[in-house]
Amino acid sequence: MTTFVRLFTIVIAVVSGLGAALPWAAAAEAGLPRAVDTHVATRLDPTDFRSRFEIRNRYQEPQTGGFRNLFTGRLDYAFSKAFAMRFELPYVTANPRTTSAASEDGSGDLILRTSYRALRTPTFAMVAGSEFIIDTAQGHQLGAGKYTVAPIAFLSVDVPTLRSTFFPTLQYFRSVGGDPARPAVNYTTIKLFTITRWPANIYTGTEVAVYFDHERNNKVGATLEVETGRFLNQHIAIWVRPGISTHGNTIPQVYNWNLEVGFRYLFD
Questions:
Q1: Where are the beta strands (DSSP E) in the chain?
Q2: What's the pTM?
Q3: Is the pLDDT of residue 39 over 70?
């Protein structure tokens, strides 16, 4: 844990230094069109539905020790600017590093999401929908062993003077079936994700997530993740996103630390 905290501090310093160095990057890429800023703002906005494909790899150290690696493919299909669906399936490798459980790998739980954009203005949008988590995991450690419904609502609030957009999110997870021997899923998540746009097609972000576990006497946990990414062209973006726990060490939603790298392709 101490080693990762040091690494996390270094990443924060690099991201901060990147922000300071961006005017030089902008000068070096003077040939880029001025529309880049608007391009990044709109193409990162999850309320501006676009068909896209993502590949992400998340390496985590759970509170219980060992490690989990999730290599995830995600497809978002926008039927219109007001309605979209998401399909997401991870390939999970879990190593508890204990003598009582062997390591496992295989597909995890399939996630389906439907989203409806109920409101949109130039600087504000509201989306409501639900996720459906299906018990498709091929091993005991690779999924929750439950069928779960998770309604979600989030906003997009753009502040042009700060070159930033804020995304507050509220989501509730409740299992509705599955293996009766596995613990029930019953928790609420509140998140605030903030994206800041920089020159040269670069963006940075922070996400604070707070979890209220209703199955465990409403115990509270929280994580902090930071992200830095870049659009290589109109369609392709890459990013890196480390994270650490900031509160709570007794609920399964909170890890010790996490590192994500990703690739995104937008079809339009």
A1: 52-62, 67-78, 83-95, 104-107, 110-120, 124-134, 146-159, 164-178, 186-197, 202-213, 219-231, 236-247, 255-266
A2: 0.84
A3: no
